[in-house]
Amino acid sequence: MSKVRVALVGVGNCASAIVQGVYYYKHVDDDAKVPGLLHPRLGKYHVGDIEFVAAFDVSAEKIGRDLSEAIFAYPNITKKFAEVPKLGVEVKPGPVLDGVAPHMLEVFKPHNLDVGLESVVDELRRSKAEVVVNLLPVGSEAASRFYAEASARAHSSFVNGIPVFIASDPEGYWPERYREAGVPLLGDDIKGQLGATILHTALVSLLRDRGVKVLETYQLNIGGNTDFLNMTVEDRLKSKRISKTRAVTSIIPEGYDLEEEGRVRIGPSDFVPFLGNTKVCYIYIKGLSFADFTVELDVKLKVDDKSMFAGAMIDAIRLAKIAMDRGLCGPVPEACAYYFKHPPRHAPSPQVALQWLREFLGEELEAYEEALATM
Hints:
The chain is an alpha/beta fold. Helices cover 36% and strands 20% of the residues. The chain is built from twelve helices and 13 strands. The protein has a seven-stranded parallel sheet, with helices on both faces. A four-stranded mixed sheet has the order 10-9-11-12. A two-stranded antiparallel sheet has the order 2-3. Helix 2 (67-70) links the parallel strand 4 and strand 5 (92-93). Helix 1 packs across helix 10. The two termini are 21 Å apart.
């Protein structure tokens, strides 16, 4: 049976939801309707074909433990929703670099080991990892680039789940690096199944399509996990705010710039400990309609932050493997546009992004749907 061999960079709440999610749906039928997944089987890869073969973290609480145990170790708070057997994957130390902000030292309890690039590359090669998934905390610019380089050297595809601009690198270095390495690159900053950004984008798209001119908008997010605690320091948020903002403003017609006019504010706003993994989002949009009358929207969204993340990432992992099987290298625009907030190329709407993805899957998707029709 075909497998997708995955290495996880960062064994936090997102990793816990991804690993549990694979086992939650490991034996689901191909024709099942699984909330949050494009299909139980993408191409020839079922959810249950994802195999975790390596993991890296900086926390002394997790290093040396089996991945099945580390996903529940402090300070993770993702609830247990699936039985995960012992995986035989020992969590290895990664370099700390900028992966731990000063105010997070007591929370993450980082090791003091000297971890070099070659040791990580060797582990990726030893484990035969095909897809490396970046789940580091927001603001881990240097650490993300470290793992991107390690992945390229090991000839593993790289899926960048956080807002560091790798696939969308404005200088073009990382896309070219992955073309030279001969492996796919997906990113940047994963969209949740129905998260704040995808909802905000859909609402702005609706107003645009109905001829309403967006005048101003904000998106305020609060939560209680370590992600939100990490993001209480504004210095960690530069790329995050750019990523979330461009996801929304990219679909606004040319001719006026909300960012330049200071009429848009999008991103994490506060840490509320008792919320745990629950994320609460407030979206406000003011627009100009017919005869210069105004229209205003106020929306509240409340979701489990990590389950929203996990479903989308499970699809992205399988898409990276499909791209790898096809011999594609560098960014995969269709997968990036649908699943990521800051792709190399934005689609003009969520519907167009989905169409690009379906065209990318092409014959594989058609064969899958034809098989389901005969069941």
